[in-house]
Amino acid sequence: MPKWHKQPHYVEVWIEKQALADAVQSFLKDKQVVIVVNKGYAGWSFLYKNCNRLKKIKMQGKIPHILYFGDFDPSGADMDRHLSVALSTFRLSSVDINRIAITPKQIQTYNLPTIPSDKETLIKLDKDTRKSKFISKYGNLYAVELDALLAIAPDEFEKLLVQSIDQYFDKTIYEQNLKQYSSNEMQKIIKTKIKNLDF
Questions:
Q1: Would 88 disulfide with which of 37, 78, 93, 139, CB 3.0-4.6 Å?
Q2: Under DSSP, is residue 158 helix (H, G, I), strand (E, B) or coil?
Q3: Cα–Cα distance between 105 and 13 in angstroms, integer?
Q4: Has domain 9-173 been given CATH number 3.40.50.970?
């Protein structure tokens, strides 16, 4: 049975790192959510395509939520704003964007490394046009990669990921669906949902 059938909410996980997509997928193997790898400041064609999919979801009467996982640095911290602007441009301003990781609180709680160790990252940070806003808001210039949370606290990473999705999932609706539909009806629902997916 499709887990999100008749659910009022619809959830997607957006992740900045292609390298972490497999790990995220393994944690969410039974959650049946779309995972989108946005690789930082994604192009407008990429955003347009994803917005069209979210528009279709909204047209079905569902409430879409984007759960965002990304680095915390001048550009990474600006990503929430960038995605909000992109969604608004494509008339999807009502879609909820939640940064799940990395956050300043997680950096402190899990003692995540905040000083880039390689010269290349330091140069890149120093050239970032968003560094002044970042410094005025967070005190100094630093970068924390999403990979750090997975490496240092893998169980907490998985817990954050799963709980951020589960908060929108109504188990009662799912159990009612299981009772209501026959195997043949479930197969038809699955085929329809697969046909309507747009990547």
A1: 93
A2: helix
A3: 20
A4: no
